[in-house]
Amino acid sequence: MIVTRFAPSPTGELHVGGARTALFAFLFARHNGGKFLLRIEDTDRERYIPESVGHIIAALNWLGLVPDNNDKVVIQSERLEIYKKAANELLNNGHAYICVCSKEKLTADRERQIAEKKPPRYKGHCRELNLKKNDVADEEFVIRMKVPKGGSIAVNDLIHGEIIFDLSLFDDQILIKSDGYPTYHLASVVDDHEMSVTHVIRAEEWLPSTPKHMLLYKMFDWNIPAFAHLPMNLAPDRSKLSKRHGATGVFEYKNLGYLPEALINFIALLGWHPSDDREIFSLSELIKEFSLERVQKSGAIFNIQKLDWLNGEYIKNMSTKDLYGALIDFYKNKPEIISDKNNALKLLEVGRSRMQKLTDFQTLKDSFDIHEYDKNLLIWKESSAEKTLTNLKLTQELLRSLLINEFSQKELEAEIMPLANTNGRGEILWPLRVALSGKNKSPGPFEIMSFIGKEETLRRIEMAIQKLES
Fold it and tell me: For burial by CB atoms within 10 Å, which of 246, 416, 459, 464 has the most?
């Protein structure tokens, strides 16, 4: 059975890069009828933020990427004895050794190598000392893996193809730190083996470390999983995506009014392309379509305008009931914005095409309200106050003759456009729009009238007429 995993470090909220890694691992597993597991890699205690664990799990659930072990997530800090046992096995079979080099000594070596324009690496002072734990009972020590001094190793990456690494360039990697915690390299290999992971799908930044991991698998005599390293997410200027390019956390996008379905759809298209030109996919459709063969090698450009467009498409295609439900949840801390259900539902029917994000509902709501304005705003270009007053009265009279059930966009347009074509579209429609909204930029007059109804429409036009007559 195919088994993938997502293994974030709890050093902050889940960001879009991590979400894409989780998504691709999820899609690959589900496409192949396999399992998708979650592991929290919290062995870097200096950067560990406890509340991040809950945030990561909540973000995955919000996106719909629910792990198969959601009720029993693997936590590395709860497995320290397992890693120590594995490290001792490597010590006993000669694949690892105890190192007592001080930080000062290592720093001096590093500075000397940099000054000599050599790549900084551990010089192997303790490699052949064959120290035992009893020998260093009163000293700080680490456990290092004994990387072969020569030869090469081939990584057959499912995205990047075969890559040959020269082992003479690799350092003797630390496996157990002086605080007793494992490094990523040991812990991830041990856990992937124990979790029966068949495919390691992770960020491209881990590709240079993969030879070390393959060596560890061989040292333990374990089956080596397949590896797939995802290309970086890049900003529009092709630099590494960072906070300066906008929001990066999944919940930041939620708070900005993006829907989880749209965010998933957008993230899926970062570095992966379907077999056709489609751009809108449900999660189930992504599962059906996904393959690692269609993941590109080069970096994926993060285009926020594309996300805005996708989110707007999802909003347009949601049922009014579902969209209202999403708004209720979104504005739960500001219930007054969405408190009038009938009004909100009517507003969504009329104006949802103007929304790209859930935050746009407040702007949409505001756009249908009347604002205080100067009477000169009612006058179209080079027209006059007198002509504007006449045209508003003509429009008012026409609207008075209509029945309430004729106040739909289609009916209103059919009745008013002949008058506008006869008297000038700008001369009729501009003052009508301003009278209804009080703004020079607003939804069209037919949209506004169909939303506010006959009584409120006539009231606002009468207010405009009074302004011009005063």
Answer: 464
Q: What does the pLDDT read at residue 455?
A: 94
* d(C-alpha 19, C-alpha 28), whole Å: 14
**Amino acid identity, position 370:** I
Q: How does pLDDT run across 139-161, given as a tens digit for each residue? A: 899 999 999 998 999 999 999 99
pLDDT digit string (tens) for 278-298? Answer: 999 999 999 999 999 999 998
Mean pLDDT of the chain: 93
The percentage of the chain sitting over the pLDDT mark of 90, rounded to a whole number, equals 81
Report residue 276 CA to chain centroid gap: 24
Q: Which helix (H) or strand (E) covers residue 6, if one does?
A: strand 3-6
Q: Which residues pair with 163 in a beta bridge?
A: 155
Please name the residue ranges forming H helices in 103-259. 103-115, 184-194, 210-220, 250-255
d(CA 213, CA 202): 13
Integer Cα distance of 116 and 138 in angstroms: 35
Give the H or E element holding residue 200: strand 199-203
Query: What is the distance between the alpha carbons of residues 187 and 208, in angstroms, rounded to a whole number?
Result: 17
| Alpha helices (H) along 64-131 | 80-92, 103-115
The better pLDDT of the pair 76, 117 is held by: 76
Structure tokens at 451: 């939303």
Tell me, what amino acid is at 82?
Answer: I
The pLDDT score that the predictor gives to residue 247 is 60
Q: What angle do CA 366, 367, 371 make, to 5 degrees?
A: 80
> Residue 273 phi/psi, 5° resolution?
-130, 145
User: Is there a contact between 286 and 65 (Cβ–Cβ < 8 Å)?
Assistant: no
How far apart, in whole angstroms, are the C-alpha atoms of residue 365 and residue 50?
40
Q: Please, what sign has the CA dihedral across residues 326, 330, 332, 337?
A: negative
Tell me the C-alpha distance between 42 and 14, whole Å.
Answer: 14
Name the 3-class secondary structure at 198. coil
DSSP β-ladder status, 300-301 and 74-75: unpaired
- Could you tell me the sign of the dihedral formed by the alpha carbons of 113, 114, 116, 119, in that order? positive
Active site residues: 243
